[in-house]
Amino acid sequence: MEYGMYYLELVTPYESILRRMNKVLASGRTKYQEYFIFDTGAFGKVLVLDKDVQSTERDEYIYHETLVHPVMLAHPRPRSVFVVGGGEGATLREVLKHPTVERVVMCDIDDELVEMARKYLPEWHQGSFDDARAQVVHADARAWLEAHPETYDVVIVDLNDPVGEDNPARMLYTVEFYELVKRRLNPGGLMAMQAGMILLTHHRMHPVVHHTVKQVFRYTRSYHNYIPGFMLNFGFIVASDAVDVAGLSEGTVEARILERGLQLKHLDAAYLEAMFVLPKDLKEAIASEQMVSRDAAPFWLTEEGEARQQA
Amino acid sequence: MEYGMYYLELVTPYESILRRMNKVLASGRTKYQEYFIFDTGAFGKVLVLDKDVQSTERDEYIYHETLVHPVMLAHPRPRSVFVVGGGEGATLREVLKHPTVERVVMCDIDDELVEMARKYLPEWHQGSFDDARAQVVHADARAWLEAHPETYDVVIVDLNDPVGEDNPARMLYTVEFYELVKRRLNPGGLMAMQAGMILLTHHRMHPVVHHTVKQVFRYTRSYHNYIPGFMLNFGFIVASDAVDVAGLSEGTVEARILERGLQLKHLDAAYLEAMFVLPKDLKEAIASEQMVSRDAAPFWLTEEGEARQQA
Amino acid sequence: MEYGMYYLELVTPYESILRRMNKVLASGRTKYQEYFIFDTGAFGKVLVLDKDVQSTERDEYIYHETLVHPVMLAHPRPRSVFVVGGGEGATLREVLKHPTVERVVMCDIDDELVEMARKYLPEWHQGSFDDARAQVVHADARAWLEAHPETYDVVIVDLNDPVGEDNPARMLYTVEFYELVKRRLNPGGLMAMQAGMILLTHHRMHPVVHHTVKQVFRYTRSYHNYIPGFMLNFGFIVASDAVDVAGLSEGTVEARILERGLQLKHLDAAYLEAMFVLPKDLKEAIASEQMVSRDAAPFWLTEEGEARQQA
Amino acid sequence: MEYGMYYLELVTPYESILRRMNKVLASGRTKYQEYFIFDTGAFGKVLVLDKDVQSTERDEYIYHETLVHPVMLAHPRPRSVFVVGGGEGATLREVLKHPTVERVVMCDIDDELVEMARKYLPEWHQGSFDDARAQVVHADARAWLEAHPETYDVVIVDLNDPVGEDNPARMLYTVEFYELVKRRLNPGGLMAMQAGMILLTHHRMHPVVHHTVKQVFRYTRSYHNYIPGFMLNFGFIVASDAVDVAGLSEGTVEARILERGLQLKHLDAAYLEAMFVLPKDLKEAIASEQMVSRDAAPFWLTEEGEARQQA
Fold this sequence. Notes:
The structure is a homotetramer. The first copy, chain A, is built from 10 helices and 15 strands.
């Protein structure tokens, strides 16, 4: 390891990553979080919020294709989409690739972060903030959804993990929040979400979120993918009362990709399907999970990845 | 990050992992390599050879199930097995779980390392070194195979990546070596191997190895899995002239697991199959690879993951 | 920085030192503290207690000559010495070099640590634990001194800094403790002590200790020296009601060194004298210090080096 | 150690310092060197060139008072001064504090660095670049001195250590360079220089430089001081054919400080004198040094601090 500038990321209390920074493009603190944007040798620009790498220039397509397209392709004709979080604009970008889309509302509480992304991360948003179909709202997503009765074909939730007892994000991981999302779905609608790192089967984030979402939706399906820039395997969920994403045939997915003219770099129909197949130990961890996160006792994660619930 | 003892692992020239060590159980240098065995908070005991984490107590089952069972299950009745490397004894352990196995020869050049494993890593080998069906040989695997005309149903190759121009392992990644392995296979036999980290599609290790193996075997199939203790997605290959592992039905695999009474923790038939489905960018990298490693010009990897070939 | 094992020392909340470890000889926890003994490239063996490097094989002679000889040479004929702390045995070793010494009581609370030092650190103690003049006692030094009315020509205090609100060492940094030490001094007796790192003039450790000692003794003199293995400049104090160490002539010191046949590696009379000359900023920090540590309100240090006092 | 941005400084091949950066103000590469300017919690702004911390906002006064005032005070009336290096402008600032000074030529090869200092380091130069008495020249100092026969009362040399076989600075550490400096001194003139870290007595930098300078000047005196921001003890040299700085009385120094109205923060006459008193082991290392650096065989340092000479 040569002399120079590094970013220290505390992945667990036992493992940390030191990332060499060629150049620091911006760093500071918005009203809501600390941010760091820097340039690296292998992953290009890296965006860090608080303590975690959010995405990297070189591999953000993997993360964003993984988050967005399974749910969008599970819907036969998604016209309206609501995005919770997603400040860099890349979720928006992927959503807008679907020509069926007529309207996307992206709700990220942090206006300063979105400004930062506009300025420093053009490779992410690629102008999607200025797409006529997109509306960007700066508000608490839960409050905004409660106040606005508009409904959507797809809701995509891209939030930080609720690490720490006082993490404000924990109110966006409860049964009541998912019930609100469900009320904002059109008939036939689906929700997708980022659902935590899957470091070892003992990490509780993904099982608890899965089990909580399952209280609300008829079909709750987990899938996973490796995100190189995080050095981690990440979990995702698609949930719906109408559509079981696991029941979609490879043929249907392939047909929709063609029909919509999607140019994907990481996903194709076969790999999309394979992501929904989980290893045995993870399936067992999900199946045996008992914790349900509710407003009265929202769950949060310790640094070790253990789940806690306020009594 | 608290004060204390850490292991610094240089994953790439740009990213390093600092792992907190609770206790150092052993460290030193054998004739062939440096080793470190230490205890950690999240992964239990960790074995490092030279600069890379080889396996961890808590998740070695993931690595070893992934390496061993796809090839063993692809064979209808594997009786004899040859293991190249695999000093910790866990590959041996997984092979011996198949009741069809009558004889396993494990060839690891480093006798001191195997002694170390016997003493410090009982959770890995679990006594398999003493199984009556196992024979442990300390020799250069290539020389040994050349000198011994005995043939096997399955050959499993578990070696370090050939990083660095002078890496002796590079002579075990050439067409000529795979041809030798093929000559040591019984009719219907298969080879499996660990085939490098898949950090980003620009990392050349896996495509070059795949392309090289393909020169020798009729069926060459890549698969991949996330190894939490490495924080990396790893590539593997199964190759054979007789059996196309990709053509095995989930039902056949499931029947063989039951038939052999295999108690697996990470794999089941569905997940085993899903591991062979690769993302689009990786498939393209493999398809467009041109480099073939030969004795006359063995390939090696730079620290950046670029492939070089001696002229 | 190469791959391998490192010790992370948190010197301040802003600066940390990573020390490459060739070999870990011992690590664990006694009843009182965590310890690490490891071998390094430049400093040989290193002993760490809790989070701070205590001494290194290669440069411990600098630390121990600096701590011991100024006070021993300030006394015309030191016969009896009491050492508070000093578990490695090197303080004892330096004291015993003075042929005038007839009896040394070394009181270190941590018997396990002393056992460890006997076993792993022979270069430090060099057999002094077995010198007929030495008595090693394992007890709380304050309680022991209170219980035993025996008096000494010299008392040497070698303790950790009282970092943290609950640090038990803080009761050995109060006016009442120094008054106890004074009652245990023979007429003409002196006390010497390690008195904290002098990293920047804003670090309060040394000024507060100096000002506290000054409440008790007629002559309180600070001196300082650079300890390479710590990468820090350290402060020390000699205090007495009878002798002003600053008034000793170089000639007297030189004569005593010769007379006692001391073989010193780092100190001579001129350098010993020069260590008592302080830079202007440090002198001003000492002169303007107001805090006095008392049993009713013992002072402690924050990680930043700020001094706090319980109300 | 918290998550965030750090600077990794490789002090020796065995010890590194990780410094937490609050903010990176500038980083890049001039024609001659890499630079990093960042803000830290304890030391304020920090300037790094290539791999070493050059000075910090909070303690640069210690370094620059130590480098400049001993030589300036050793001269009864320094009117003209030549500074080799010193890009930050703080050496210039300290020189200009002496009201006797009529002209200072500062020669730093790196014009981009000086521009950077003007912009980002006003606390260092405090406008001295614009002082009417100062002339800033961007050239190789040796070539410039050869080409310009002007002479000075004082020459101050502030260069990086010649680490590495190809280090261009090594031609500014030879007998021939010091002879050139001597030819550029007025009668009664003196040279001062920064002369390397004194980490352990086995570090050869300071002894070799001292021994080389001694070949040229009648009086060569070493002194040392601890620089907190470097976490290192540094060596310096004053040399002259006319004045033995060690022979100056404290009274003379004090009178000159008063006479010139110098406002010093770290030095006073007594401490200035004490810095010239060296510990015994360092004196012995200097006395036994045999290596002389000459143009025909300039010395250079290994990373370990060993001295090498081209044959």
